[in-house]
Amino acid sequence: MAGLTHRQSEILNIARSFGRVMVDDLTRRFEVSAQTIRKDLNDLCDRRSLTRIHGGAIIASGVENLAYEARRFVAAEEKKAIGAAAAAQIPNGCSLFINIGTTTEEVASALTSHEDLLVITNNLNVAMQLYRHPRIEVIVAGGTVRRADGAVIGSAAISLIGQFKVDYAIIGASAIDEEGALLDFDYREVQAAQAIVANARSVMLVADSTKLRRSAPVRIAHLSQIQTFVTDLALPDSLQSICDAKGIHVITALPKRPVESEEAVPELPMLRQD
């Protein structure tokens, strides 16, 4: 990109590879001060190439989502906490949908000690996490498998989802705007998510706070259509007002932001310098 310094170009390449960059990692990598790195990140954010998060930045979004492996790095600890908090709301002996997403996969991971669950999913990663557990029955939607992330999409998946009426739906979103719209990138994925919302008695949204600083073009639903919102930090006033007005139960998995430290932020792998 024109006008970038060599270091800023390298920072952008790292962010594209891993989904995020952290100030502590970059100061060690480039042997410069944290202040210098923050200025680089701010410059890249001003160009709308990155979006700031606590302690670093992530690739800015618009019409295309991050690659699956990169998404796994973004807010990883927050997603794990959200997954545990969401799973704690799910009783034994119930039925549920779990849709596509790295955060919904953390919910699935936290459900493995539950008993007598029926899980219907269009996420092969969720199915692989749960099928080995004898007290959890797993039904996988049929259809085209998206190679990028193991998502099952298309009309066959939507048709199977429509045959069930379950107790809970666990859904994610790539972005949430200030008016409460839940947004994503792939309209085929969104169609499956809409079918999941329509066929559940109670819908639980799981999304970390970075989703409030992103954008995406396709509407899944609106906050008013969900019953529970599990996130990491307190919501901004505009979204909290919607939740209060609609009686949405908001669960904050990390009420206090974790202290930034070398132990709290894992170092990214070094890239080859060709």
UniProtKB/TrEMBL annotation:
Keywords: Repressor, Transcription, Transcription regulation. One of its GO terms (molecular function) is DNA-binding transcription factor activity. The keyword Repressor applies. SUPFAM superfamilies: NagB/RpiA/CoA transferase-like (SSF100950), Winged helix' DNA-binding domain (SSF46785). The keyword Ribosomal protein does not apply. InterPro entries: Carb_Metab_HTH_regulators (IPR050313), DeoR-like_C (IPR014036), DeoR_HTH (IPR001034), NagB/RpiA_transferase-like (IPR037171), WH_DNA-bd_sf (IPR036390). It comes from the Bacteria. Coiled coil: none annotated. This is Transcriptional regulator, DeoR family.
